[in-house]
Amino acid sequence: MTTLPLRVCKAISIHKCQGISVDNGHDWEKVVITLPTCDQIITPGMELVAVSRVIDKTNFAINSSSTTFSKHDLKRIGRGPSTNERLKYIAELENLAALTQPLFEEEIAQCDVGGRHTFDGGFDELVRWYRSVT
């Protein structure tokens, strides 16, 4: 009889690994991340999700179908045109919030019937009103 030195392995997708930590003592202790070539990338940033799951860098290895994968390529993960567009959009939203939030806070403060015209008083009054009409 011949035995084969097999080892039990598990695999999950990058989508499924979100929120999972990879480290000694966790459900997943080691990971091999297979990175696509540049022409295979469908969803930019997914590689960053996979790499960011690992707590200790000694617990992961990278497998790439590209024979020219380098340290520069690894540092570029999570950076690129789509990331820049997302960061630009987030900055626009933050600017819009900075412009409009004080206006809404003032409107809510004006709802304070206690005469103090505070945000908390206005909020409490709006909650009382909402509960009375529902």
Strand and helix map with partners:
Blueprint: H1 14-17, E1 31-35, H2 46-52, E2 60-64, H3 71-75, H4 81-109, H5 119-133
Parallel strand pairs: 1-2
Helix pairs in contact: 4-5
- Portion of residues within helices: 40-55%
Helix and strand element order: HEHEHHH
Question: What is the number of independent domains?
Answer: 2
The number of E-state strands comes to 2
For the largest beta-sheet, the strand count, sense and barrel status come to: 2 strands, parallel
Distance between the termini: 76 Å
Q: Return the structural class.
A: mainly alpha
The average pLDDT score comes to 83
- Regarding quaternary structure, what we see is single chain
* Strand order of the biggest β-sheet: 1-2
* Proportion of residues in extended strands: 5-15%
CA radius of gyration:
25 Å
Which parts are unreliable, with pLDDT below 50 for 5 consecutive residues or more?
none
Number of helices: 5
Shape: elongated
